[in-house]
Amino acid sequence: MTRIACQQLAPELHDLEANRALTGAAIEQAVAAGADVVVLPELISCGYMFQSAAEAASAAITTDHPLIAGWVQAAVRADIVLAAGFCERGDDGLTYNSAVLIDGTGLRAVYRKLHLWDREKLWFAPGNELPPVIDTRVGRVSMLICYDLEFPELTRTVALAGTQLLLVPTNWPLMPRPDGERPAEVGIAMATARMNRMAVACADRLGTERGQAWTGGTTIVDPDGWAAAETRESGMIVADIDLDAARDKHYTELADAHADRRPELYGAVTRSATSSAHASTN
């Protein structure tokens, strides 16, 4: 079994030192709880509610910044897998909504969010590379960021690449929902796990930032699609997940989540919205 910890935190907008202390303590708490894997929220380095591209750029850092160096040191020291979001200053001068994947050997990958939500399009450049799928001591791990999770083409792609555990740093804005219902985004995480037979661990945030309230939807989902742990409160959740189960894509003896696909019929999935609309009128 692999012990996964997700921390639901509220960063301080623009305060790198405060967030360095916040994340350091969160990682220490997870390690003390025996975690093999730790997930921190999207843009935990700096907060989210920017008012301009220039403000976002002023919060951007590179992977050699002391905040990220501290994450690397903590992960190497404890031999954990760690995913956490940060505002990245690219070598190309652009600003990205990014996440790092770190393990006991050091920094393994940087992923830049592909699907930018709403006003993020005004602040960030979109990434242009698929999420990495990394072999770690706990198994094959990949990561997405927030809105990326809502694109089944992308989650299927990383699943087909052998991902056993999908890590999702996120900031889900609070949306209306019926009483007693889980957040819709949690439902998407559960469906993603179920249809791909891979575990999904989402670290959301709480609080209100510049008038924006957050969902607090932190959830760990097992490869069968069931929520193994979830919270709407501040703090940590932990779940022990059998990641070996994610290697077996069978639902039953004759039903297989991957082998039963009919990709020869799915061409519309890879066509642009413009070309699909044109085809539907002819």
Outline of the structure:
With 282 residues, the protein is of the alpha/beta class. It contains seven helices and 14 strands.
Describe this structure in words.
A hairpin with a 5-residue loop joins β3 and β4 (95-103). The radius of gyration is 18 Å and the shape is globular. α1 (16-32) packs parallel to α3 (66-78). The protein has helices at 16-32, 53-58, 66-78, 120-123, 152-160, 184-196, 273-280, and strands at 2-8, 37-39, 81-89, 95-103, 106-112, 133-136, 139-143, 165-169, 199-203, 208-209, 212-213, 219-221, 227-230, 235-241. The protein is α/β, with parallel strands linked by helices and 282 residues long. Strands 5-4-3-2-1-14 form a 6-stranded mixed sheet. A 6-stranded mixed sheet has the order 6-7-8-9-12-13, covered by helices on one side. It has a two-stranded antiparallel sheet with strand order 10-11. The model has no long low-confidence stretch (mean pLDDT 95). Helix content is 25%, strand content 26%. It has 7 helices and 14 strands.
Strand content bin: 25-35%
Helix count, DSSP H or I runs of 4 or more residues: 7
Helix-strand category: alpha/beta
Distance between the termini: 53 Å
Q: Which spans have pLDDT < 50 for at least 5 consecutive residues?
A: none
Question: Regarding quaternary structure, how should these chains be classified?
Answer: single chain
Q: What order do the strands of the largest sheet run in, or round the barrel if closed?
A: 5-4-3-2-1-14
Taking all residues together, what is the mean pLDDT? 95
Q: Tell me the total number of β-strands.
A: 14
Can you summarize the main beta sheet? 6 strands, mixed
* Gyration radius from CA atoms, angstroms: 18 Å
| SSE sequence, one letter per element | EHEHHEEEHEEHEHEEEEEEH
- Helical fraction: 10-25%
Q: In one word, what is the shape?
A: globular
